[in-house]
Write a structure and sequence with these properties.
Layout: E1 2-7, H1 11-22, E2 26-32, H2 36-43, E3 68-70, H3 73-77, E4 84-87, H4 94-103, E5 107-111, H5 118-131, E6 135-138, H6 145-156, E7 162-170, H7 185-188, H8 190-207, E8 212-219, E9 226-234, E10 240-246, E11 256-263, E12 266-271, E13 276-281, H9 296-310, H10 319-338, E14 342-343
Parallel strand pairs: 1-2, 1-4, 2-3, 4-5, 5-6, 7-10
Antiparallel strand pairs: 7-11, 8-9, 8-14, 9-10, 11-12, 12-13
Helix pairs in contact: 1-9, 4-5, 5-10, 8-10
Length: 344
């Protein structure tokens, strides 16, 4: 049985908690947050808000009354029962928590984005490598069921080559975070790095690093950073890829993620507003294929736990992948600010 400690009991900590509740063999033994009321709320299934609904779940492998609550990360790291640290803190606190956990000999799952700078990313990678612990950044879209179907269509070439794809991600303005940290551009790098990086990472996963990127965006509407961004990823003679997203539409705007993909022999569409993936293959009737079970959070966490149990290094997303996704997203911000194409 894998024993986990969550540090950070806000919205994403609650999402991860819900996933652990559903995984047989996963035992949450500790949570950590400087706000003990929020930590108590987490293990009692009380939501901290957010842009996605979290399904309440009864733990299958642990009793919530036995989960230890810490107000200090160092104390939780000294707990010999904790084998894995799940870092669900604000982005600007990721580096410190990951390095401390690695030095304490704990395996680490860290919420995306990895961190705020490439220098910090290198330090996190090198520390985990030196400590010989498993380290995975939770880029969840690689595991999201509908995107998994799209990945398979691309890799199996079942409708021919991918010609064009467009990805969208719109979120209500995030007003639910601790001390409103996410709307402080210096602590989150705004929507480009906190939100849009989901799609940048997935694009790199299916297509690799582009030759150039060109981005435009809206800066300063909600934060001092880029609150909405649109990017063209140029793959030369390869597919035409676009992504757009942000959180500038207001706090009541509904969350939506969507994609449209054009192949040589058909097209695919997904929109989370109707939770439907449709495949339009040339010469055939449209179909809504069977979607893999579980949401992306459940699937990514189950994958990481399986890697720990089997002694394998996570390969679906590596720390180097996460660093590259951060690098490209930072260059997208640079493209917005300078108003020019960036050559990679």
């Amino acid at each position: 049985m894998t024993k986990i400690g969550i540090v950070g009991c806000g919205f994403i900590g609650g999402v991860h908690f819900s996933a652990y509740c559903k995984i047989k063999g996963a035992k949450l033994v500790a949570v950590c947050d400087r706000d003990l009321n929020r930590a108590n709320n987490l293990i009692n299934g009380i939501s901290s808000g957010g842009n996605l609904s979290v399904e309440a779940a009864r733990p299958v492998s642990f009793n919530t009354s036995e989960v230890k609550i810490y107000a200090n990360l160092d104390e939780m790291l000294n707990d010999p029962e904790v084998e894995i640290i799940d870092v669900c803190l604000p982005t600007y606190l990721h580096k410190e928590a990951v390095i401390k956990a690695a030095k304490a000999g704990k395996h680490i799952l860290c919420e995306k984005p990895m961190t705020l700078s490439l220098k910090d990313a290198d330090e996190m990678i090198n520390t985990a490598k030196k400590a010989k612990v498993k380290f995975m950044v939770a880029h969840v879209i690689r595991f999201w069921p509908e995107y998994v179907v799209l990945t398979e269509l691309i890799t199996k070439n079942s409708m021919g080559k991918l010609l064009e794809a467009n990805f969208q991600r719109h979120s209500p303005t995030p007003t639910w975070t601790w001390n409103n940290w996410i709307l402080d551009e210096k602590k989150s790098l705004s929507a480009a790095v906190d939100l849009h990086i989901h799609d940048t990472d997935y694009i790199l996963y299916i297509c690799g690093t582009p030759k150039t990127i060109s981005s435009i965006g809206v800066k300063g509407k909600v934060t001092k950073g880029v609150d909405h961004i649109m990017t063209e990823y140029n793959y030369g003679k390869g597919p035409k890829i676009f992504a757009e997203g942000g959180w500038a539409y207001g706090s009541k705007y509904p969350f939506r993620m969507a994609f449209w993909a054009l192949f040589e022999k058909g097209a695919v569409e997904f929109n989370s507003m109707n939770c439907r993936l449709t495949i339009y293959e040339d010469g055939k009737e449209p179909v809504n294929p069977k979607i893999p079970e579980g949401d992306g959070y459940l699937r990514e966490i189950q994958y990481f736990l399986n890697c720990i149990e089997e002694g394998k290094t996570p390969s679906v997303v590596t720390p180097y992948d996460a660093k590259e996704s951060l690098r490209i997203t930072l260059l997208e911000i640079n493209s917005v600010e300078k108003g020019k194409q960036i050559v990679l």
